[in-house]
């Protein structure tokens, strides 16, 4: 296996960023990447996504079928000559649950998550890996706002991301503008943020960012491109997402004010405990 200079050069020119080819070559035989792809009714796009994953590093591909009712699984099974694992949920458990299943099975030094609907470009995986390799970053989020996008972001998504971004900055002085992006990279040392999560469906993307910031992990965004969805439909439930976002912000606000000893310990414990019980029943 060899690093394809032409592919790296194209990425450097497209985004005007300094991808460290020398560092990539140094780590080529040492680094192992896990690529997690949650899958739900994406028979038209999943095969193309898998076949476009670059071969810069040794890697495994973990597909989590979340109860697809179309031919998605059949399309995955057609793929040969890939280090690919297919894990199936017997029923649809939600995006977050699929990611958590993938994390449990991942063996990589760096873990990538990427959507299966074709909006993300697998060729850009090196852009996400770069800050972990060279800048000591723990979690990298691919941002359409920093890159190029052919996708018009819905107003409710922009509003939700604005609220999350401002809250992250207010509580932890971390900024993540495209905080609902599913195209991410994680250093394996940061994976403890996936333990004991509350929001295993729509709120996972938000919860792990707050949890990472709370635990002092370094987060950054990098530019990616985003495509219009060509096939299928989005299964996001706007009201559920907003409810989970507000709950997460409240939960971590309580954690933050306890750090500052703003309210008495016993009152804080009662508030926090009751909120946790309520959220676990709700989600």
What this model shows, in words?
The mean pLDDT is 86. Strand 2, helix 4 and strand 3 form a beta-alpha-beta unit. This protein has one domain: Spore Coat Polysaccharide Biosynthesis Protein SpsA, Chain A. It is built from ten helices and seven strands. The protein is an alpha/beta fold and 283 residues long. The chain has a seven-stranded mixed β-sheet with strand order 3-2-1-4-6-5-7, with helices on both faces.
Key attributes of the depicted protein:
alpha/beta, Spore Coat Polysaccharide Biosynthesis Protein SpsA, Chain A, 7 strands, single chain, 10 helices, about 280 residues, seven-stranded mixed β-sheet
Write the layout of secondary structure elements.
Elements: H1 5-15, H2 21-27, E1 32-39, H3 46-51, E2 58-65, H4 72-77, E3 84-88, H5 95-105, E4 110-113, H6 125-134, E5 139-149, H7 155-172, E6 184-187, H8 204-214, E7 219-226, H9 238-259, H10 265-282
Helix pairs in contact: 7-9, 8-9, 9-10
